Each structure stands twice: as C-alpha cells, then as structure tokens.
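Feature request, filed as a ticket because there's no other form

It would be nice if the structure record came with a short human-readable summary line next to the tokens. Right now we just get the raw output. Example of a typical job, pasted below so the devs can see what we mean:
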Amino acid sequence: MATQKATGRIRKPLKGIRAVGKPRPVGEAAYASLREAIVKGDLHPGQRLVENTLSGQMKISRIPVREAIRRLEQDGLVERLEKGGFIVKDVSREEIEETFGIRAVLESYAAALATARMDERTVSRLDATLESYREALRRGDILKMTQLNDQLDEIIFGASGSRKLCALIGNFRDFVSRYRRALLNCPENAAISLAEHGRIVEAMKKGDPDEVERLVRRHLTRGKEIIIREME
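Raw output as currently delivered:
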C-alpha cells in the first residue's frame, strides 16, 4: 500500500522498510531497520531519505526516524545534502581501499586468534557450513551463498573470543556489504571464494596462524579488486 504524503501525493513504498513494532526502543528499532536496508542494498546509493515516508512505513513518529538517520550519518552510511535532507551515501574508490586495508588487519588478526582457540565444535560448524556453501554453489543460489559466506566469517571471528574485535569488524564489513553480492554473482568468483574459505579453514585446523593471516589478507585483496572493478 502506498504511503500518503502531507502534500496529497502518493509515494511508492521504499524497498526493505517495514513497520518496526514495539519490542525494543523505537529509535533503536528504526536505526536497525534503516541500517539493514542500506547494508543489504534495498536502499541504494543516492536514494533520498524522506522522514515522512519512512515514519509512515515504519508506523512511528518522525522523531526516532530523524535520530536514526543522524546515527547513520555518523556511521558513514548516510550524507547530508547542502540544501537539506539526507541521501544514502555512495562509496568512493579511496574509501573502499581504506576500508579493506583496515579489514585486512582486523580480520586476519581475529582469524589468527581463532586458530589458537580451535575446538571440535568450531571445526564441525565450519565443515558443515562449507558443505552447505558447496551445495548452494551447485544450485546457483546466490542469496544462500551470501548468507553462508557471512556465516563462515561469523564462526571464525566469533571463535576469536573478542567481542570488541568482532564489533569493529562488523562495522567495517557493513560499510561495503551492499557491494558484496557482486563477489558472488559470478559463479567463478563464488567458486574461488569457497575455495579460499576452505584453505583458510584447513590452515586453522593445522594450527598455523601465520598462514591463516596470509590467506585472509589475500582473500580480502581479491574481494577489494572485484568490487573496485564493478564500481568502475
């Protein structure tokens, strides 16, 4: 159902935006909903964020929506226009380079920490996820591959035992997540990503943190190059 604006015009509902409900503070729920829509690519770079439209779809007042947009601006996901209002921020090549450089440091360190803490449960979860990933690749299920790719990383980083490190990694991954589907859209890229994850997991099983760090950095470098190529 279209959202009615104060001017009487009918605006098409924005993709990915739903009523937030009342299970947690409204401002927090609005922020989480908007952030997810941007990270998933439902709200695309350059798209204008209109408070009236968003509050109507979320079925909340404009105040928590305004607060959520300001938080997203601080996150670097939204930018303010000179004439007023906000749009979803695009990402420059320089920002991609910087973000992946930081990710390489954080994620390789987290994987090295996880290597020292490997146990049978973690190994079992990683092996099961890799097998599910292989099956999704055989089916050409891009959405499932994206989910399993994230799941592999969450298992590895979670095994590091550092919540602070995981939170930092999450922030930097979210910044470029809207472009990540390009990495898996091509079957060849998806197969390479699966193979790279497999080698990382094998190095972790062998207890070789130096090799793990090297493989994680190489994996991220390849991903960065694909995203930059797609942007250009």
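Something like this underneath would help us a lot:
The radius of gyration is 20 Å.
The domain at 93-231 is CATH 1.20.120.530 (Four Helix Bundle (Hemerythrin (Met), subunit A)).
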